[in-house]
Amino acid sequence: MPIQQISLQECSSEFPKVFDRVLKNHEVISVRNESEQEIVILDAKEYSGLIETLYLLSNPANADRLREGISQHQQGQVREIDVTTYLD
């Protein structure tokens, strides 16, 4: 996912458009000030997903299970189950 870079001045003057770009196009936008400091603007759902992924991968045993599941899926070793019993 390429990160679009804009200046703080552009972000300030065009914030509603920047906001819409992030939400509608799932863009990640880096905003840089004159001191070369940067912040990143991204959709809150995208951020939550990244944090959840980091959390899941931080446990080595869990990371191994996830990788195994991905590998099985890529090899076509899948089966469908009824998940309604797991729902509240």
Automatic annotation (TrEMBL):
<comment type="function">
    <text>Antitoxin component of a type II toxin-antitoxin (TA) system.</text>
</comment>
<dbReference type="InterPro" id="IPR006442">
    <property type="entry name" value="Antitoxin_Phd/YefM"/>
</dbReference>
<protein>
    <recommendedName>
        <fullName>Antitoxin</fullName>
    </recommendedName>
</protein>
<dbReference type="InterPro" id="IPR036165">
    <property type="entry name" value="YefM-like_sf"/>
</dbReference>
<dbReference type="Pfam" id="PF02604">
    <property type="entry name" value="PhdYeFM_antitox"/>
</dbReference>
<comment type="similarity">
    <text>Belongs to the phD/YefM antitoxin family.</text>
</comment>
